Amino acid sequence: MVVSLRLPSLSSLFLPSVSRRSPAVLPRHHHRILRTPVFAASFSAQTTVSETDDRVDTQKSNRVQDQAVTPRSKDFNAWYLDVIEQAELADYGPVRGTMVIRPYGYAIWEAIQDYLNVKFKETGHSNMYFPQFIPYSFIEKEASHVEGFSPELAVVTIGGGKELEEKLVVRPTSETIVNHMFTQWIHSYRDLPLMVNQWANVTRWEMRTKPFVRTLEFLWQEGHTAHATPEEAEKEAIQMIDVYTKFAYEQTAIPVIAGRKSKVETFAGAVKTYTIEAMMGDRKALQAGTSHNLGQNFSRAFGTQFTDESGLRQHVWQTSWAVSTRFVGGIIMTHGDDTGLMLPPKIAPIQVVIIPIWKKDDDRAVVLNAASSVKEALHAAGIKVKLDDSDQRTPGWKFNFWEMKVCGYP
Amino acid sequence: MVVSLRLPSLSSLFLPSVSRRSPAVLPRHHHRILRTPVFAASFSAQTTVSETDDRVDTQKSNRVQDQAVTPRSKDFNAWYLDVIEQAELADYGPVRGTMVIRPYGYAIWEAIQDYLNVKFKETGHSNMYFPQFIPYSFIEKEASHVEGFSPELAVVTIGGGKELEEKLVVRPTSETIVNHMFTQWIHSYRDLPLMVNQWANVTRWEMRTKPFVRTLEFLWQEGHTAHATPEEAEKEAIQMIDVYTKFAYEQTAIPVIAGRKSKVETFAGAVKTYTIEAMMGDRKALQAGTSHNLGQNFSRAFGTQFTDESGLRQHVWQTSWAVSTRFVGGIIMTHGDDTGLMLPPKIAPIQVVIIPIWKKDDDRAVVLNAASSVKEALHAAGIKVKLDDSDQRTPGWKFNFWEMKVCGYP
């Protein structure tokens, strides 16, 4: 009667008491993660880019929901797209390269947000919101920034039925508009450090896209900080890549490698780019989070200055750092197996599904009652549990559905 | 030593034990809200629009932070803009009509999100995310929708350096793209009701703007549901306006009037629009939330059909409903007074500020220790408390700053 989530067997991740308290819960054990930690020592531009072989707007397959996913071992890419479709994580938007994040996929993103949001606040950052329309001239102010982003911009040229005097860029990232505002808010050393974050959508006109991994519009958080010294900025950049690393290991069971990007891969406008990358099931690297020490590149371009304690005017030292919905793709590609999706329990929207079965209508109330008790017990133990008591589907259909979507069963 | 937040005296809102437990906390009492409940019986298009007399891009005044706000009683509009600037709630973005929501203003929005997000999930909705770029042709599919939104659209015509074949609209609202997707997900009555919500940014090219109240880009949640019967859709539309009403009363202490919009003010594409409106301090009405019964207008335009239990194909019945960052403006305009901002305690990011004062350096440790104890006691009692123990400012500066920003003191 109880279907349990197929969980990676990192026992430290799961509440140790669960299987003891609830004998009906028998998670299938998978040792794949523990067997494959063969990591690339460095991540070249090629490996980072090479997982984007497919376009989001690839013609949808005509697979029906009742069909199994392509085995991961047979065709990793077809498997990935199958899992996303059949587990109802995301769908293709009407505009090439855009993605609709469906409730089950979005719940994974919400779990990521919930964790990181707390960590960002604990480390002294406040949330806020910058507008997404940026005057075209802003992008042009920082030489390597304009070079890095120009080919990827979406541009608004018409507003309220009229041709605009200055074209507006839909933010690909917010360093330029952030500096425009910081320049108004930062006057003296007393205003530093200034440490903010925003949860937002960003747009990059990528030609090769893939759900979650690379899409025209995606969701992310972007942290932006300004400091009085280069040492402070460097410390901040490292602190945030550490937050990401810990998150990847402890919450998502993804053994990432933290390191510094090569010069050619450094963020457009940054002095140093730190990254966490992980090897996916197809042995390709995925960049899962970045933290940039921006030095004074943007503060010089925008004139973001402060008066220090001795009365001298200085340019601030800055950082920016981001994790996006790409992380959801990383979780899928790290933990999935031939049968479909497997989610790390701390991130899983549902950890256990209960499917009640009765033979005679007389048994219905008794079974439902027992199922509810199990649900309550699991819920009280902190397990995210779903009781699928809908009348519209048979237990067989439900088993197939939940296994395809997120679960196996003992 | 203790500065308390200036709170409206709706005692039911505040923890009754606070002033008893913490004799140092002496909230100033304001009875203005209780004195002014003279509500407009109906809200005409004129009154709803008339509070937008000012543009976000109004030249910034050259008031400095140490200057008091314009008294509310003297010039409501100047007062409103002063409060937003001096309490650091928001600032003007570089593009006309756009707004930067600063941390203190954003924290109010986060409090709104936290409450509503729970209520939406309790009433059976899941969060998800739809892309913001909508093919221009989608907008044109529903006659009154295109008529209502065409003058307000921001249009992307260039992507990746090239002129696009089909222009893309930056969403002013998502009914069209939602229906495009619903049509792919809804097949039979078993797929209904479909009840989702998204937290997102939207863009409307308004000519007359005002921070929070009306901006080119704003943040909101938009709920979208599809049902098998018109009765279910109507019930849902009313349920959600009820959620908003309860939120306005119980969390923000804004006595709203719930009602139905006149035909001319009904949402473009809806059959009925329910609204909550409240009278602001200048005796003008502000629309603070809407819930639309869309009938079959969009499902007919997009062909969103399902097979009912008897095997017949029918168009779904739909709703949509939204609350935006405008609500923050409503809170400011309802509760503020001549001296500045006053926030309802359930929404206030900070309820009490403690400013330690010592005469001799020897006293410093003792005072800070005592202040910390008070802070801990308040925190334990569930009060959102801030201890401003920074060395960079004098107590006098801090008193002025916090009074101007959010607090009065006894």
UniProtKB/TrEMBL annotation, chains A, B:
GO molecular function: ATP binding; proline-tRNA ligase activity
Coiled-coil region(s): none
One cellular component term from this protein's GO annotations in UniProt: cytoplasm
Biological process according to GO: prolyl-tRNA aminoacylation
This protein's record includes keyword Nucleotide-binding: yes
Top-level taxon of origin: Eukaryota
Keyword list, A-Z: Aminoacyl-tRNA synthetase, ATP-binding, Ligase, Nucleotide-binding
NCBIfam families in UniProt: proS_fam_I
Protein name: proline--tRNA ligase
Organism, as annotated: Prunus persica (Peach)
Lineage per the UniProt record: Eukaryota, Viridiplantae, Streptophyta, Embryophyta, Tracheophyta
